[in-house]
Design a protein that fits this description.
Layout: H1 2-13, H2 15-37, H3 42-45, H4 49-87, H5 89-97, H6 102-140
Helix pairs in contact: 1-6, 2-4, 2-6
């Protein structure tokens, strides 16, 4: 529990550093939700057979784009994590100097990542649902 509260304090203290990482994750979740919900929109249910074939082709292409975007975002997330760790090198060094084990330091960093990930997942899903509904209205017209 102490490590969890330390992770929360570190997030609050490093909010500027985590903001870019957080925004990247939120946008990624929203984009994936929108891409993967195109074929299940209610506007797509009432289209003709020939138009349905075109929509299926678009959904097929979007699935490949989604994979490509996930690879790019994966590299971006790894880069952001490395950036955050390099930026906090002194802080990590202080923890180690004060006697905290490498395992506990790693646990704190993993907890910070999980906390940011869960919050960004929730906000990204809410944003994705909203934008998906806007896309559904747009495609219905």
């Amino acid at each position: 529990m102490k490590l969890f509260s330390l992770a929360l304090r570190n997030i609050k203290k490093s909010i500027k550093d985590y903001s870019i990482y957080f925004i990247t994750l939120v946008i990624a979740v929203a984009i994936f939700y929108i891409f993967n919900s195109v074929d299940s929109q209610t506007a797509m249910m009432s289209i003709s057979k020939s138009t349905m074939e075109i929509v299926q082709a678009i959904v097929y292409v979007l699935s490949y784009i989604s994979v490509f975007v996930s690879i790019v975002l994966g590299f971006l997330i790894v880069y952001a994590n490395n950036f955050l760790i390099k930026r906090r090198k002194k802080e990590i060094g202080i923890y180690l100097t004060l006697g905290m084990s490498k395992f506990k330091v790693s646990t704190v960093l993993v907890l910070e990542t999980i906390i940011i990930g869960v919050i960004s997942l929730g906000i990204g899903l809410i944003l994705g649902v909203g934008l998906s509904q806007l896309l559904s209205i747009f495609t219905a017209k």
